[in-house]
Specification:
The protein is an all-beta fold. The chain has strands spanning about 5, 10-15, 20-25, 35-40, 45-50, 55-60, 65-70, 75-80, 90-100, 105-110, 110-115.
């Protein structure tokens, strides 16, 4: 199993930046896919960004050019750098991990709130 702990959320003005962190209790290079989803009030959870253990990345069209996913294997942490934030980015952001050896697939973190004021 793996535990995921997110941090870095908060309140920011439109146009500002935030960096979210997702600390994993296992070696992240042993995890096939890690990424971030978000869920706004009254909306379904949606994919924001994903990174594979090979380093490939993918982004939702709505965040391309503004948000970057990265990782630090030494810290077993995945990051989400969010720039040029918009009010529509307001949501709870959830880190997730998926690998064949996980009992719970995918495994989710507890979420961190991001609020962008206009």
């Amino acid at each position: 199993q793996v535990q995921l702990v997110e941090s870095g959320g908060g309140l920011v003005q439109a146009g500002g930046s935030l960096r979210l962190s997702c600390a994993a209790s296992a070696r992240i290079f042993s995890i096939n896919t890690m990424g971030w989803h978000r869920q706004a009030p009254g909306k379904q959870r949606e994919l924001v960004a994903v990174i594979t253990n090979g380093g490939s990345t993918n982004y939702a069209d709505s965040v391309k050019g503004r948000i970057t996913i990265s990782r630090d294997g030494a810290k077993n942490t995945v990051y989400l750098q969010m720039n040029s934030l918009k009010p529509e980015d307001t949501a709870v952001y959830y880190c997730y991990a998926d690998a064949p050896w996980l009992t719970l697939r995918p495994t989710w973190g507890q979420g961190t709130q991001v609020t962008v004021s206009s």
